[in-house]
Amino acid sequence: MLQDVLVILGGIGLFIFGMSLMTEALRTAASGQLRQILAGFTTTPIRGVLTGTFVTALIQSSSATTVMVVGFVGAGLLSFPQALGVIFGANIGTTFTGWIVAVLGFKLQLGSVALPALFVASLMGLLGQGAWARAGRILAGLCLLFIGLDMMQVGAAPFSDIVTPDDLPPPGFGGQLQLLMVGLVMTVVMQSSSAALAVALVFLASGSLDFSQAATIVIGMKIGTTVTALLASIGGAATMRQTAVANLLYNVVTAMLAFTLLLVVADPLDALAAGVGPELALVIFHTGFSIAAALLFLPFTRQYAAFVVRLIPDATSGLTASLDKTLLRDDAAALDAAETAFRRIAERVYVALASGLATPADLRALATLQSQAGPALDELKDYMRQISLQDGTKGTLERYSALLHQIDHLRRVLNRAGRADIIDRLMRDPALRRPAQHLGALLQRSADSRDLAAESRRLFWLARLMTARNDRQRRNSFLSDGAGEAALEDVFARTDALRWLMRVSDHAARIASYASEARLAATP
């Protein structure tokens, strides 16, 4: 008996290790694409569901998807309602592992094929490089998964005569609650709902569990998967806690729905289990109630988001609200947060300058700009120092460098925004008012635009124009001064104003250019 228990535990360990190896290799192979997909293809809750389903089915981990989404919300890349759609989809995508286990593991019994395949995978991992090495790790993980499943089946076989469904908690609310807690604890301990599902399928196949008991354990697993995201949100921003709590509440409601389905459609489910086999019927049930829950919540996504926001209000709405220290564990997520904070600060600076360079000029935003944007930039620089970059890729290092350049240029723009005397001179001088207004319009466009390359070109053009005008102004003014036709003080004032226009245009252009470089570096 002890030997059988050890075989089961070893099988679970191999399954978890194989799943972890496969998930990590898949995430590494598609990390850039996954970030782009999650950040760019979740514009609506429906697209979020489809994206969450696809990503989770691809990387074989709903917890990984949920934690990634929690980080994206904290970094400001996803809004809260968009994140909810991804969470709904992740709960559907995670059922894909059950199909792999039930169809390939039980029906086709690929455990014996996995042994020679593991040898090939090991050679690919040792001798291959790049994509071949990653493919080897993915294949190795899949092989270990099936080998572990075989070991669990071998170890569980003797228990069919020792542990029967009658030995487990009796039917009824109390018994189901105990089985639900079993599924929850299994998932929390294993940190993998897929491994817990595989164990339930093994004991269901051996006859130690009946269909209803296995289904109840699977329902408990749905709640257990929320623990990882809850832990990831501890100490994080309010948006991260909102996402984690929304995931918890969603899975609790999903569990209640599954219990109802289990009672209402018990006879059809038993008939299904008799027809296709209990293992496949359990996977169909798992997938069915996950899809039903998503369809139930999807029309009310915004209302649900509003409810969670009222439950956990967000008191931090400042320029640096995205700079969450919990994101520093992931360089890419920390850079996302830093770039989000920078965009907010830059937008505040640009809008304030645009208002001051408009007709009529509005200087109210400029009056408070230094006290707001200055400390925010200091906080951003301090956050950047805490990003380790020890295992950073070339793209991550390029993003980091580009963001440092952007911070430096924005600091210079902010310093020049404090020259109220020059801004006043620009708006009073008929010859300088028009280029100043043009700069203000470009800054406003830069604050709103997504086409950073185009904005940098326009700003560089304005900077060159101001440089040429400044050179002509200086030559003409000093010549006319020598002829006694202009006051020296006025010459210097106009030259300073032109230089201000030239420098602000140039710094803004370089910010847009570096932002465009950072975007390219983040795109695989």
Short description:
The chain has 524 residues and is mainly α.
Q: What descriptive keywords fit this protein?
A:
2 domains, mainly alpha, 24 helices, 524 residues
Structural account:
Helix content is 81%, strand content 0%. α14 crosses α15 and α17 (331-356) packs parallel to α20 (394-417). The chain folds into 2 domains: 2-311, no CATH class; 325-522, Methane Monooxygenase Hydroxylase, Chain G, domain 1 (Up-down Bundle), CATH 1.20.58. The protein contains 24 helices and no strands. It is elongated and about 105 Å long. By secondary structure, the protein is an all-alpha fold.
Nearest-integer average pLDDT: 80
Low-confidence stretches: 481-486
Q: Topology as H/E string? A: HHHHHHHHHHHHHHHHHHHHHHHH
> What form results from the Cα inertia axes?
elongated
Topology of helices and strands:
Blueprint (H helix, E strand, L loop, with lengths): L1 H28 L1 H10 L4 H15 L2 H14 L4 H14 L2 H12 L3 H17 L3 H26 L16 H18 L2 H14 L4 H14 L1 H8 L4 H27 L1 H11 L1 H20 L3 H11 L19 H26 L7 H4 L1 H17 L8 H24 L2 H9 L1 H19 L3 H31 L5 H35 L2
